[in-house]
C-alpha cells in the first residue's frame, strides 16, 4: 500500500463497541498488512465477552499493542487522571500518527498530540467525529458546550476525517465551517463480507441488529412490527440481536404486548451470523453517522429498510424506496407490510452491487487514510526541519 518508511499509528477512542471499534479494526488490519506498526488505546470499562473476542482477533495485527484505561463517557474530574495516564502511554509508544475517534477519543488524542509537539514530536493529530457530540441539539446547553469545545480543539487538529458527507455537513452546521483541513473517507468492507448470506427457508420476516438503546430505535421496530401485522392481516415474526442496558425494557415491552412468541431476543453476535436468522434487515435508528450494519447488510445481499438519517441515504441512494422517515411507526410499518406482501419489492430497491463494492471497500478506505497519514507526517517533519534551520 505504501513504499515510504513504516509509520507508527495509534488509534485513540473511548468505547470499544459498535461502528468506531469496527472502523479502527479494519484500518489496523489493512495498515499492519502493509507493513506499518499499529496500536489501540481505549476504555477498559466498556464491552464484554463479545468485544474481548474481537480484541483477540485483531491483536496479532497490533505490534504497538492494546492499551486500555478507564475513560468515562461524561466529562468529569476523572478525565484529569485519564488524560495523564493516556499521555504517559502515548509518549512511551512514540507514534507518528495519533488518530482520535469519537468526542472523548478525539479530545484526548489532540491534547496529548499537542503536548508531544511541544516536546519536539512530529506526531500528526487527526480526529474522526463518528457522530459523537454531533448528535446533540445545538439549541441545548450541553450542545453549545460540546460544540464550543470542538471548535477550540480545531487549533490542535492537523486534519478532520469525516466518514460521510452528512457528518461533514452536520459539523459545519453545528460547529462551523472547519478551520482545520478535512477529508471525506467512507467506511469500507472486507472482500469476504461481499459474499451473500441466505436466510433459512423458515426464517422470520425481519431482523433488528444493533445496540439496545432508544437512539437506535428498538421500540420503533417492535411497535412497527405490531402495526405491520394489522396491515398484512396475519402474525409476523422477528429477531432482535444486540446488547445494552435497555434490553430488559424492550423484552418487557414485547411481553406486555403479547408478542413474546413472535419476537425472539438474542445476545450480540457477528453480523453475518445474524443475517441468516431473518429475510429482511430493519434499521429504525433515530440518529446515525455512517452505520456499518447498513453496509454489511447490503454487501451480504440482504434486503433492508432503514430510516433517512445520517449517512444512510449516501449508502442506499437519496431517492431509495427503502428509506423511511425516522421515529415514524406508521411509515415503517407500512414499509414492512409492503416488503411482506410484494416479494421482490425491497430486493429491487437495493443499490447496484458492483458500484457499491467499488465505493465501499476496506482496501480503498485504508489506502485513502494512509495517503492522508503520510501527507500529514511529511508536512510535520518538513515544518520541524524548517524551524530548526
Could you outline the blueprint of secondary structure elements for this entry?
Blueprint: E1 8-13, H1 18-33, E2 37-43, H2 49-58, E3 65-69, H3 78-93, E4 97-101, H4 102-118, E5 124-128, H5 141-153, E6 159-162, H6 165-174, E7 182-184, E8 206-209, H7 218-232, E9 238-241, H8 247-256, E10 263-266, H9 271-275, E11 280-283, H10 292-299, E12 303-307, H11 312-316, E13 323-324, H12 329-341, H13 345-348, H14 353-359, H15 362-388
Parallel strand pairs: 1-2, 1-4, 2-3, 4-5, 5-6, 6-7, 8-9, 8-11, 9-10, 11-12, 12-13
Helix pairs in contact: 1-15, 3-4, 7-12
Keywords: Transferase
Organism: Pseudohoeflea suaedae
InterPro entries: Glyco_trans_4-like_N
Give structural attributes.
about 400 residues, alpha/beta, Rossmann fold, 2 domains, 13 strands
What does this structure look like?
By secondary structure, the protein is of the alpha/beta class. The chain has 2 domains: 209 residues, 3-Layer(aba) Sandwich (Rossmann fold), CATH 3.40.50; 166 residues, 3-Layer(aba) Sandwich (Rossmann fold). Helices cover 45% and strands 15% of the residues. The protein is built from 15 helices and 13 strands. The chain has a 7-stranded parallel sheet with strand order 3-2-1-4-5-6-7, sandwiched between helices. Strand 1, helix 1 and strand 2 form a beta-alpha-beta unit. The longest helix is centred in the last third of the chain and has 27 residues. It is elongated, with a radius of gyration of 22 Å. The two termini are 33 Å apart. The model has no long low-confidence stretch (mean pLDDT 93). Keywords: Transferase. GO terms for molecular function: glycosyltransferase activity.
Amino acid at each position: 500500500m505504501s513504499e515510504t518508511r513504516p509509520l507508527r499509528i495509534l488509534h485513540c477512542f473511548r468505547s470499544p463497541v459498535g461502528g468506531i471499534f469496527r472502523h479502527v479494526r479494519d484500518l489496523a488490519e489493512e495498515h499492519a498488512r502493509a507493513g506499518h506498526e499499529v496500536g489501540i488505546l481505549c476504555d477498559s470499562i466498556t464491552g464484554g465477552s463479545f468485544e474481548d473476542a474481537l480484541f483477540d482477533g485483531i491483536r496479532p495485527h497490533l505490534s504497538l499493542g492494546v492499551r486500555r484505561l478507564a475513560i468515562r463517557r461524561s466529562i468529569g474530574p476523572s478525565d484529569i487522571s485519564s488524560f495523564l495516564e493516556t499521555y504517559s502511554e502515548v509518549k512511551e509508544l512514540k507514534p507518528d500518527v495519533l488518530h482520535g475517534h469519537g468526542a472523548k477519543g478525539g479530545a484526548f488524542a489532540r491534547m496529548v498530540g499537542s503536548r508531544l509537539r511541544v516536546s519536539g514530536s512530529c506526531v500528526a493529530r487527526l480526529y474522526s467525529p463518528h457522530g459523537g457530540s454531533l448528535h446533540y441539539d445545538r439549541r441545548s446547553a450541553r450542545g453549545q458546550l460540546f460544540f464550543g469545545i470542538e471548535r477550540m480543539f480545531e487549533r490542535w487538529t492537523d486534519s478532520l476525517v469525516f466518514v460521510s458527507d452528512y457528518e461533514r455537513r452536520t459539523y459545519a452546521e453545528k460547529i462551523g465551517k472547519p478551520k482545520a483541513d478535512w477529508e471525506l473517507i467512507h467506511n469500507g468492507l472486507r472482500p469476504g463480507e461481499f459474499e451473500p448470506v441466505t436466510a433459512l427457508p423458515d426464517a422470520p420476516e425481519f431482523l433488528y441488529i444493533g445496540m439496545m438503546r432508544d437512539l437506535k430505535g428498538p421500540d420503533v421496530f417492535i411497535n412497527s412490527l405490531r402495526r405491520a401485522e394489522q396491515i398484512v392481516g396475519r402474525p409476523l415474526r422477528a429477531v432482535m440481536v444486540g446488547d445494552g442496558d435497555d434490553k430488559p425494557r424492550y423484552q418487557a415491552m414485547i411481553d406486555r404486548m403479547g408478542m413474546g412468541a413472535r419476537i425472539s431476543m438474542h445476545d450480540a453476535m457477528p453480523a453475518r451470523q445474524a443475517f441468516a436468522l431473518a429475510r429482511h434487515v430493519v434499521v429504525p435508528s433515530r440518529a446515525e453517522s455512517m452505520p456499518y450494519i447498513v453496509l454489511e447488510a447490503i454487501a451480504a445481499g440482504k434486503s433492508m429498510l432503514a430510516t433517512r438519517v445520517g449517512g444512510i441515504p449516501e449508502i442506499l441512494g437519496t431517492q431509495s424506496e427503502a428509506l423511511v422517515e425516522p421515529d415514524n411507526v406508521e411509515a415503517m410499518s407500512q414499509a414492512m407490510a409492503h416488503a411482506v406482501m410484494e416479494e421482490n419489492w425491497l430486493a429491487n430497491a437495493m443499490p447496484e452491487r458492483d458500484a457499491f463494492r467499488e465505493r465501499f471497500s476496506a482496501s480503498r478506505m485504508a489506502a485513502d487514510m494512509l495517503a492522508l497519514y503520510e501527507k500529514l507526517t511529511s508536512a510535520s517533519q518538513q515544518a520541524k526541519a524548517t524551524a530548526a534551520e
